[in-house]
Input
Amino acid sequence: MELDMNGKSKVKNLCPWNVSWENINNSSDEFIKANQVVYINNTEIEVQVQNGNGFFCGTDSIGSHARVYIENPELREYLGFDNKQEKRTQLILNEDKCKEIFEYKTFNTFKKHIEENVITNQEKAMIINYAKKAKINDYDRIQFLEIYCGIPFKNDKD
Output
């Protein structure tokens, strides 16, 4: 399938809070509510990436730990976030990755994968929220997450 740069791609906000930035191709702002999706013009996404927008580029300019995720594999490949030849995909923490991390049997393996995959504030909030939702009942893991993420596992509402 050929990439249509005049088309739009689905972009998901991975943060549990709203995000926004100034569009470069026109005089408007992009606003995405917490954990929601919008459709953005592919040329605007390309320009945002070329200008180093951290929401797309993440911590390493190839989209690792990005705050928004482009749900168009052809566009991710075009922008260098994925690479089929190198069998490399964009490093994004999502619910599947959270589940995978909690399935590791040993605490040290769990800790290693947390430290490698949970870097940004939104990822820390995501892993804590996943642990709450999945009703994780492992004192050592919960204690480690609270210290590592700086977020209490149990809040006043619980």
About this structure: The helical segments are 42-50, 54-57, 73-79, 95-102, 107-117, 121-133, 139-149.
